[in-house]
C-alpha cells in the first residue's frame, strides 16, 4: 500500500466542450473551495451539473447525493463524473477533523485508519495533502458502488475522473492510475 500518489497537470481540453447547454459532466466538489470549475475545465457552465458538500464526499444514505448521481447518470446520461478535492481542505484533514460528526466523521476516520501507518511516515506538511488525494480515490470507489454507475462504465458511456486543486498555485491536477478507461 502506498500513499504517494502520482498526479499530472490537467491538460487543456482534458474533457472537450461539446458547446451544448445540457450537462455532460457531474462535478462532485467541496463546498469550502472557491475554485471555478468551468474555468478550470474550459467548458461552458451549462455543461456541468454541480454537487457540493463538505469534503466532496459520497456518503451512504445521503439522499441529495444519491438522487443527484442517479439523475445525472440515468436521466441526463452524463459522460463524465469528476470528483474534485482541494489541498488545504478544512474538512479533509489527516491530523484533526474537529467539528465533524456522524457519517462524515466516520468515513474519514475509517479512511485514515486504513492508511494511518503510511501517512505517518510522510513529513507533517505532506500528510494533509496526501489525505486529500486518498479521499478523492475513496469517493471514486464509492461512486462505483452505484449499479447505475458501474453499468454505464461497463457500457463505455461514462468515465470517472479524480482531480485535485491547489489554490496556492491555482493549478489543477489529475490523479493518475485510477481512471476507468
Ligand atoms: Zn474542502
From TrEMBL:
A Gene Ontology molecular function term of the record: carbonate dehydratase activity
> Can you list the GO cellular component terms from the UniProt entry?
cytoplasm
Q: Which reaction does it catalyse?
A: hydrogencarbonate + H(+) = CO2 + H2O
EC assignment: 4.2.1.1
Q: How would you classify this enzyme at the top EC level?
A: lyase
Is-annotated flag, keyword Lyase?
yes
| GO BP of this protein | cellular response to carbon dioxide; cellular response to oxidative stress
Q: Which SMART domains match?
A: Pro_CA
Q: Which family does it belong to?
A: Belongs to the beta-class carbonic anhydrase family.
Q: What is this protein called?
A: Carbonic anhydrase
Which species is the source of this protein?
A: Penicillium vulpinum
Amino acid at each position: 500500500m502506498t500513499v504517494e500518489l502520482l498526479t499530472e497537470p490537467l491538460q487543456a481540453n482534458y474533457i472537450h466542450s461539446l458547446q451544448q447547454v445540457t450537462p455532460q459532466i457531474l462535478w462532485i466538489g467541496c463546498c469550502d473551495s472557491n475554485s471555478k470549475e468551468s474555468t478550470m475545465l474550459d467548458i461552458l457552465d451549462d455543461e456541468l451539473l454541480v454537487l457540493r458538500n463538505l469534503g466532496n464526499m459520497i456518503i451512504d444514505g445521503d439522499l441529495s447525493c444519491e438522487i443527484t448521481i442517479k439523475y445525472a447518470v440515468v436521466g441526463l446520461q452524463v459522460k463524465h463524473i469528476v470528483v474534485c478535492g482541494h489541498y488545504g481542505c478544512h474538512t479533509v484533514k489527516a491530523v484533526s477533523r474537529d467539528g465533524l460528526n456522524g457519517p462524515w466523521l466516520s468515513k474519514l476516520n475509517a479512511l485514515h485508519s486504513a492508511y494511518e501507518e503510511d501517512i505517518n511516515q510522510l513529513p507533517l506538511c505532506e500528510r494533509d495533502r496526501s489525505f486529500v488525494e486518498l479521499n478523492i480515490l475513496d469517493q471514486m470507489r464509492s461512486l462505483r458502488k452505484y449499479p447505475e454507475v458501474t453499468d454505464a462504465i461497463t457500457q463505455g458511456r461514462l468515465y470517472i475522473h479524480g482531480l485535485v486543486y491547489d489554490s496556492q498555485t491555482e493549478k489543477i491536477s489529475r490523479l493518475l492510475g485510477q481512471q476507468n478507461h
